[in-house]
Specification:
With 151 residues, the chain is of the alpha+beta class. It is built from 2 helices and 7 strands; from the N terminus they run H-E-E-E-H-E-E-E-E.
Length: 151
């Protein structure tokens, strides 16, 4: 649970573009881009933070627009935000399929229509935990992910 709380903190700090005051040290951080334009255009792409696990499913039609990694107390946490022009439901179906196979399990929470929230865990190491959510505004679907793992 501590890992999930830390991951949520990283997600909020990274994706909101705020400067967090914490004992965690940023790793491979990227500056978030401005808010999406009303025309449905996506924000600029940023580089993937260092060390983000390559087996974590990433929605194939999404652009990474914010990402940061932080190390603290034997743990690394990533806060990520992707954008796509696809509908939230398409994103939900993708993650329902991809995070319910292999080394992953996913549990969806209750969310208002047109959005979703979920938690996911690595089956082989329950200390690798994440939070996933998606919503749509101004023609752009945002996918927010927070992931925490032991170092």
């Amino acid at each position: 649970m501590r890992a999930l709380a830390a991951a949520l903190f990283v997600l909020v700090a990274a994706c909101a573009g705020s400067t967090a005051t914490s004992t965690a040290s940023p790793v491979g951080t990227a500056e978030p881009s401005p808010v999406a334009k009303r025309s449905g255009q996506l924000d600029a792409q940023v580089p993937m933070p260092t060390g983000f696990p390559g087996d974590v499913p990433v929605y194939t039609k999404a652009r990474l627009t914010a990402g940061a990694a932080f190390r603290s107390d034997g743990q690394v946490s990533w806060g990520m935000e992707w954008q796509t022009l696809d509908a939230v439901e398409q994103v939900r179906v993708f993650y329902a399929q991809r995070l319910s196979q292999g080394d992953w399990s996913i549990t969806f929470g209750t969310a208002p229509s047109g959005t979703f929230t979920a938690t996911f865990t690595r089956k082989s190491n329950a200390q690798v935990q994440g939070i996933l959510s998606s919503s749509r505004a101004n023609g752009v679907t945002k996918i927010s992910m927070s992931l925490a793992a032991p170092t």
